[in-house]
């Protein structure tokens, strides 16, 4: 593609987005209003599970047991507290039997059983003051939640001599979903005003500060509508709404910051609004496009995993990234066209600037004028490159040390301890876990398929009992062509010993087909599914990232450097996740209960999200470095120039995104807290350490070889690559941007700026 054609294409896009700005904004307002309507009630259609692999042995076995032996898979537990008298007291027993019979008659309830019917010791607490009524609510997550909402108020509370509390997996999931929705609303109420204040501090102008916030709101509302549509076809996790809010605000603000900042630079250089928008779209607009593609690819990689928990974040992430980029590249230029110089209106920093004004920088100078921006970042860049080996080694070693705790990671499953200590369903589960023998609900179920004689069933039971790590075997319970054994493992229900027992049970020869499910079996299958698909996900992210960064820079080495440095930026996050959430450090301050492990899917999710956000900032920095290098051919000056022009912008964007993620991290659900706080740490480390120290140090050490590419790839990039170097310098550029200034003179100007 020729340079002329490129220019015509960009010019055509500028004309398109600025031709009817009022009509474009009116259409956006109508579409946003429709999105509010279409996306209403989306949270009620989402699920709170999705950690299990749908095609795994444990998932299939659970479905069969639910169908053939519903009593074997109770998801509703009523904890009956008899107070100071034993649960075998006649008055207590009579009331409990009445409640059990009443529960059996409820529509949508099956497999009802209780201690008073079976006299099973596992259903009575060790002190004899509590016992369990177990049942199964039929249907999917949404239907089960509706049934629970209908019946729970009739059973909770005091009934004659007993007090009833509602628990079980359905209650845990339902309460988790409700808490997440409440916490998300609180996070938005925290994040929006704080974000607005920070944007005003960055831009000075209240008008300019409102633009990124508007782009973010459009992206969030649009994504909710998209997710509402997706729930018609597949399961979507309620946790994905947190990512929608975080990325909707964070990325939209990033993109809008970059575009508004460049537009104001062009205005301050003397360009009229239409020309300023043209240059902005030709430069910052392309960077936004590349950034959106890299983030979307990182999130899309989660589509390779079978768990709908991970796939949900891909749905939400791709939608919100594309909508944020579209709003930034279509609606924002239309708004800027209407505003023109008024984008600097309501400048809250005007008075302080007047007091500091000098003859060279008049009182009306824009806060984004070239002569006023990036002085500290320029000095930092010069300092880092002067001591490049020291900064490169010290920073790399420090990041690696911060990540060392992750070597001791232990993977587990999410349970009721994700909830706050005051949640009723968690209280019920804790009473059962700590006060009942055999830890009901923590066992393994072995399904036998095919008819067999009683002798063969008994023989297989003896072989199970002989396996290491088996505490007790109950059963078999027989049915029409199926039977199952209830196996209680020793130690923790999902500990390493229980996981080893799952593998032993699956390997044990039997005279009939067998399969295993239970909490530990679900964990084993989930870990295997992630391990099987993880290389594909990482491969997709790395290969596409390498290609996109090559198209942006034309260099073979810069994409490799970007991938390696991005990975380093995540080490602190992974180390902190283990040190804090697995090992329990700071659990009192952060108000969570450590389970001694990390939910299996969380590190995958955090890697994909944090890697994409790191590339977001990396593209911002590299694009300005590339633009200046193309114009001057001076490598060190280009690095200094790039950091000077984007250092403050990247840091501001990272701080704003970190504020949003910390607001998400105030959630009372531990996994959401871990996601929010972990990604906030990763974003800050990337912006303040990797982009500010490690990137300039590495680029200094590599020198001009940084830009090397073999001749065939250079030709490919000249034809297909895109960069920010296509705009001609404007008349208002400062000394360090003028082609006639030598590299040494530019360095002196930059260092003294």
Automatic annotation (TrEMBL):
SUPFAM superfamilies: Multidrug efflux transporter AcrB transmembrane domain. Pfam families: MMPL. It is a multi-pass membrane protein. It is found in: Cell membrane. Residues 213-338 form the SSD domain. PANTHER family: MEMBRANE PROTEIN MJ1562-RELATED, MEMBRANE PROTEIN SCO6666-RELATED. This is MMPL family transporter. It comes from [Kitasatospora] papulosa.
């Amino acid at each position: 593609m020729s340079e002329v054609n490129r220019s015509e294409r960009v010019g055509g896009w500028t004309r398109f987005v600025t031709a009817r700005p009022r009509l474009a904004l009116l259409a956006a307002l109508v579409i946003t209003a429709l999105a509010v309507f279409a996306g209403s009630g989306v949270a009620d259609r989402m699920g709170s599970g999705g950690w299990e692999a749908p095609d795994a042995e444990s998932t299939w076995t659970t479905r069969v047991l639910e169908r053939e032996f519903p009593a074997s898979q109770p998801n509703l537990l009523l904890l009956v507290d008899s107070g100071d008298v034993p649960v075998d007291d006649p008055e207590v027993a009579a009331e409990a039997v009445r409640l059990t019979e009443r529960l059996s008659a409820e529509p949508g309830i099956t497999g009802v059983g209780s201690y008073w019917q079976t006299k099973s010791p596992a259903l009575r607490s060790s002190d004899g003051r509590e016992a369990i009524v177990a049942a199964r609510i039929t249907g999917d997550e949404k239907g089960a939640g509706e049934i629970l909402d209908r019946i729970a108020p009739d059973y909770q509370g005091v009934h004659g001599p007993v007090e009833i509390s509602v628990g079980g997996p359905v209650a845990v999931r339902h309460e988790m979903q409700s808490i997440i929705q409440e916490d998300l609303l609180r996070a938005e109420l925290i994040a929006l005003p704080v974000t607005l204040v920070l944007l005003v501090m960055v831009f000075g102008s209240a008008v300019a500060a409102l633009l990124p916030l508007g782009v973010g709101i459009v992206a969030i509302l649009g994504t909710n509508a998209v997710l509402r549509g997706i729930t018609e076809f597949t399961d979507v996790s309620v946790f994905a709404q947190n990512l929608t809010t975080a990325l909707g605000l964070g990325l939209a603000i990033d993109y809008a910051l970059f575009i508004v900042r460049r537009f104001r630079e062009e205005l301050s250089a003397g360009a009229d609004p239409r020309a300023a928008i043209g240059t902005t779209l030709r430069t910052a607009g392309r960077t936004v496009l590349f950034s959106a593609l890299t983030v979307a690819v990182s999130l899309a990689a989660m589509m390779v995993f079978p768990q709908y928990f991970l796939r949900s974040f891909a749905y939400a992430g791709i939608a919100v990234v594309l909508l944020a980029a579209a709003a930034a590249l279509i609606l924002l230029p239309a708004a800027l066209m209407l505003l023109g110089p008024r984008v600097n209106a309501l400048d809250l920093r005007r008075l302080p600037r007047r007091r500091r004004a000098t003859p060279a920088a008049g009182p009306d100078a824009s806060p984004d004028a070239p002569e006023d921006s990036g002085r500290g970042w320029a000095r930092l860049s010069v300092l880092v490159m002067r001591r490049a080996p020291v900064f490169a080694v010290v920073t790399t070693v420090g990041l690696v040390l911060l990540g060392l705790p992750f070597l001791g990671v232990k993977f587990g499953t999410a349970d009721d301890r994700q909830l706050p200590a005051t949640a009723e369903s968690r209280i019920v589960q804790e009473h059962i876990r700590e006060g009942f023998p055999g830890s009901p609900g923590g066992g393994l179920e072995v399904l036998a398929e095919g008819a067999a004689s009683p002798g063969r069933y008994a023989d297989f039971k003896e072989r199970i009992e002989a396996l290491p790590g088996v505490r007790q075997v109950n059963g078999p319970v027989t049915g029409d062509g199926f039977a199952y054994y209830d196996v209680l493992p020793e130690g923790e229900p999902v500990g390493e010993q229980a996981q080893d027992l799952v593998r032993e049970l699956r390997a044990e020869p039997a005279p009939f087909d067998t399969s295993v499910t239970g909490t530990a079996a679900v964990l084993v299958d989930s870990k295997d599914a992630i391990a099987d698909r993880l290389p594909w996900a990482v491969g997709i992210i790395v290969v596409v990232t390498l290609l996109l960064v090559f198209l942006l820079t034309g260099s073979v080495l810069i994409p490799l450097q970007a991938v390696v440095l991005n990975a380093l930026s995540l080490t602190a996050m992974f180390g902190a996740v283990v040190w804090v959430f697995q090992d329990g450090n700071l659990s009192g301050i952060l108000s969570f209960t450590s389970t001694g492990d990390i939910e299996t899917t969380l590190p995958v999710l955090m890697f994909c999200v944090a890697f994409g956000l790191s590339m977001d900032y990396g593209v911002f920095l590299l694009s300005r470095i590339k633009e200046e290098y193309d114009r001057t051919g001076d490598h060190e000056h280009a690095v200094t120039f790039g950091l000077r022009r984007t250092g403050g912008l990247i840091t501001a964007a990272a701080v704003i995104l970190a504020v949003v993620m910390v607001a998400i991290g105030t959630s009372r659900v531990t996994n959401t807290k871990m996601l929010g706080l972990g990604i906030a740490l990763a974003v800050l480390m990337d912006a303040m350490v990797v982009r500010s120290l490690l990137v300039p140090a590495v680029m200094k050490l590599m020198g001009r070889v940084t830009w090397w590419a073999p001749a065939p790839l250079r030709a490919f990039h000249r034809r297909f690559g895109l960069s920010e170097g296509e705009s001609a310098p404007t008349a208002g550029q400062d000394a360090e941007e003028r082609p006639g200034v030598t590299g040494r003179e530019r360095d002196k100007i930059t260092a003294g700026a």
